[in-house]
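Please go through this protein, sequence plus structure tokens, and consider how the sequence yields the tokens. Keep your notes short.
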Amino acid sequence: MEKLAGSDVEAPNSTQCAVIGQAMAKLHLASLELDIHRDNSRGANWRQQAAELLLPLVDQDSSELIKDELAFQAPYNTLGLPKSVIHADLFRDNALFSGNKLSGIIDFYYACNDYFTYDIAVAVNDWCVAPDGTLDKERFGAFISAYQAIRPLTEDEVSHWPIVIRAAAFRFWLSRLRDVHFPKEGEMTHLKDPDAMKRILKARRDFPENYRLE
């Protein structure tokens, strides 16, 4: 059986982050030519519903965090940012590299129509994250610079970035919490640690200067 060369990257370097940023920008520009639409199945409405489902089940700290994020992200659907088809799940395990060369992007299961910056946020929250949840300045800068060299961000995308990047972290934290509290019987799925994404979300809240777009 033929397959793409390469493997996923456990510890990405700044060059690989730049390559992913560039590939994502090209993907976004190409998607503008597509006349298709699919709502984000894990978008703002899903986040609201998942949060309400989980609130009675989580500890007080998590409960307060969920309520605060719902309030902060309330304007998400009305931001009016550039959008089209995005990958929506471009974590490190969904890209294959041979050294610093990207050989392919896989797993478009969650592909949908949403803000381009949401796609960026999902990716940098994984590719550019440090152990404490903050963003590594060098890798983050490499990703954003490479992306903007192909598709420059608009003023509105920059100004609403805090809502979007927190929404991306919030989505995956809720998703992982949901998998823990409501495991799907018989499904061969590796459960990811919700606390890791919670740490990322808290870092986005506590250190907004860490993810500023320049």
Observations:
- Residues 161-181 form the longest helix (21 residues).
- Residues 14-182+189-211 form a domain with the Aminoglycoside 3'-phosphotransferase; Chain: A, domain 2 fold (CATH 3.90.1200.10).
